[in-house]
Fold this protein.
Amino acid sequence: MKLRTKFSIGISVLIVLPLLLLAIVTYTVFTSVMERKVTENAANVLLEMDRRLLSALGEIDALSDVAVVQNDVQTALRTPNFFTPNPPGMDAREKRRIEARLNMLLFTNHKVQSILLYPFQGVGHPIGTSRLPDLAEIRKADWYAVVESEAGRPVWLGPGENAAVAGTEAPLLSHVRIVKDYHSLQDLGLLVFNVKLSALDTVFVHPNAVPGSRYLLANKDGIVLYDGGGVPPIGSRGETGRQLATPLVNLLRSASAEGGLKAERADFTGPEGEKQLVTVVPSAIRGWYFLSFIPKSSITGEFQRIRNVTILLLLLSLLAVLLFDRLFVSRVVRTISHVARLMQRVEKGDFLIKANTTGNDEASALVHGFNRMVRQIERLLLDVSVESRRKQRAEWAALQAQIQPHFMYNTLESINSLAVLQGNREISRMVIALGKLLRIAMSGEDLIQVRQELEHIRSYLAIQKFRYRDKFEFAIEVDPALESAYTPKLILQPLAENALVHGIEHRPEGGRLNIVGRLEQGWIHFLVTDNGPGIPEDTLREIHERALYGDWLEGRGKRGIGLLNVHWRLRMRFGDQAGVMIGTAPGYGTTVRIRIPLLRTRTAGAADEAAADSAFYAGKEGKTG
């Protein structure tokens, strides 16, 4: 398939189809977002209505809170048969005064329709009404158990659920609570405030309400406690006390199961076929819920205009794509095809070609880059040829260099044989030790076993004992289990040399050198200890600074070069947790600790080195940055 055909298919698949999908997704997402925003606004409106409801009913709660602790109410409920004509032990004048004060509660708030006061010992007393529901019937109501469980806190009942205490056919709100003796906290009786439904008239008026929407207050069983009017979800206005449709009752139960103040949203079709968006928000009053009904036609009206604008933009986008294809894509395709033909000639070894172009855009830059690439490939081939010849010369030199160690070992063996023949055992032992030392030091392996490192340090110390004429003693104590582990070579010898040259050599009475190796939590620790004079503070500070900033290669000949060499070799191989630590005190000697990970195989050492390389060079870049 030619490039031009691929571009045409690509434009169709990657531009036209995505634009169409974008239009569909945009319309769908916008619809969803719009509904969510409407739901959020409805939820905010319902929450504000709930705050207004609490404020409206809070006046009655406050009146009730004052009433239950009044002496008159407490006395009336505490005195047996107080509301009979002649209660025993009660002065008639005092009784009339208390009854007058109780009757005044009705006029304290104009929202109160009537008040019912029931002592648990005696008959009840109605205020503002002649009807007195029977207390026994009240106790049979489903909600009475909730009143008892509230232990004196008020419980609100709405129309359709307060028939036992309303005492009238007119819809009322009922405030019910148990009155307790404020001395003994014993239950004295029942207090009921029947409140006019007009108390909620101002609750359902909100400036941010969606035009054409309707708001209801219902309980968890779907009984409408107050109908705020608007689009009918279950019929016409005045549905207070009626039962909501089954889908709405299920939505209320879902909101009840969720708990908290989370808003629930659902689609609902009214009796007249009107599709509505329903939002439910639980009220702060337990068991009550606010519902909003918003006609979807009021939402989708905006969507139609957006859909038309989207279609127009889609058509304009398609026209722009066609123009772009004619004016720009065709030229790019011709340029790429021209360069592709020239690349086929380059594959055959023709590096003398040159692509021609006009203009100053990216297509021209591609042609110029192709020409530069051809020139660079030609130069690279020449460089590879030169490098190949250099590599051959280096391999030849390496083969020659292999003869030198072999010659050195043969020479040492000759010296050893001559010393044995002449009976000079000291020279023989010294030559043997030197041979072992050189074989390990000049081996090509970077990682060796711990037993080889110990053999190397023993050979070195044996040679030094000849030099210092037994001026020092040494002891090596290494856990035998570590001898098969692997370690970078030549890490103990520089530390032993430092101890001899800077510590023991300056003691006329000689000294002692101890080397200890042990395993601690997966790490090998080597301790090299001498009983020399210790390291001066300024010298220790200099070594610390050079170890910190990694300039151990600078200042060759200074004290601590071998120690720093070991430290940075371990850091570069194993990371920041490995390295060398110094402990010293003037007059008490020095202990140098080496810390490396336990390596059972050379492969494990290679993996640790690769992991440490990235960390080490990242740290070096951080310092230079």
User: Anything to note?
Assistant: The longest strand covers residues 187-196. The domain at 469-624 is CATH 3.30.565.10 (Heat Shock Protein 90).
